[in-house]
Amino acid sequence: MFRYVHYEVTCAILAVCATAVSAGVVFGVKGAPEAPRGVAHEVAFGLLTLVCVAGFGVLTVSRLKWFGEGRDFDKAVPLEETGAALPTRGEQYRNCLNVYLFVVLVTCALGGGLLWERGLAVSPLFFASAWLARGWWVARWERCHGLLLWTGRARARLPEGDEHLYSSVR
Q1: Which stretches are transmembrane (predicted)?
Q2: I need a surface site. Which of 57, 69, 72, 109 has the fewest CB within 10 A?
């Protein structure tokens, strides 16, 4: 069981680390791209794309029917009723660490950067912006409701899948 916000932020950190690894390797092998004069419009386009991806991330946790996950947050089950114990602080962070996600992000960014275009080495940043936006939105939901949102398996209730659970801030 892990906190929803911690998982989103940890995934964003993994994406930033994957960007650092893949950019280091690709720029070391193929050389860093040179910035020609008048590159401001390309930078502005990249930033606009990051903002749009972050907006899409917020939409995925909104209350929109057929699209957002926010309605499921309101259907969360109280953690006290499930009989599940909260994880210790260290275990909670270890459960959030997704090594397979890191390997996939690095592999895709390295493959794209080495085989096609050097700029694809920083592609995991788009995922990072979406995950950070999702984490921000869920943290806002937690603050507005005065609850902590968890994702996990309630042993007594749901043997085969994860569900949203909540607990008090205390």
Answers
A1: 44-61, 97-116
A2: 72
Residues 6+ apart with CB under 8 A from 97: 10, 14
Tell me 76's DSSP state.
Answer: P
Cα separation values, 166 from 41, 75, 84, 104, 158, Å: 45, 10, 11, 31, 15
Q: What is the pTM of this model?
A: 0.76
What would the pLDDT profile of 59-106 be if each residue is shown by its tens digit?
878 777 777 777 777 777 776 654 555 555 555 555 557 788 888 989
Structural domain boundaries in the chain = 2-30+41-169
Number of H helices, E strands in the chain: 7, 4
